[in-house]
Amino acid sequence: MANGKASAVKMIEGTGQDDWDAKLVEVFEEAVYVPGMFKGMPVHSRHRFRVKFRQE
User: What is the CB neighbour count within 10 angstroms for residue 9?
Assistant: First the structure.
């Protein structure tokens, strides 16, 4: 069902910090997204996000 929740979250390349990586996956799993739409109906869709971190 296309309900705005991620059905699968996969990290392709981690930060090298296991605790950060786990938290990132958790955040994306818990987030609510606007589902893809086709003819006014929600449909399954796939997205890839790139997140860059800079430690200060």
Answer: 14
pLDDT in tens, 1-56: 577 888 889 999 998 889 989 999 999 999 988 888 899 998 888 888 888 877 77
CA distances from 7 to 31, 32, 53 (A): 11, 11, 25
Closest to 1 (Cα-Cα) out of 26, 36, 30, 31:
36
Pull the structure tokens for residue 24.
């990132």
Question: How much is the CA Rg of the chain, to the nearest whole Å?
Answer: 14
Helices within 1-56 (DSSP H only):
18-30
Taking the domains of the chain in order of start, what are their residue ranges?
Answer: 1-56
Q: Which helix (H) or strand (E) holds 37?
A: strand 36-38
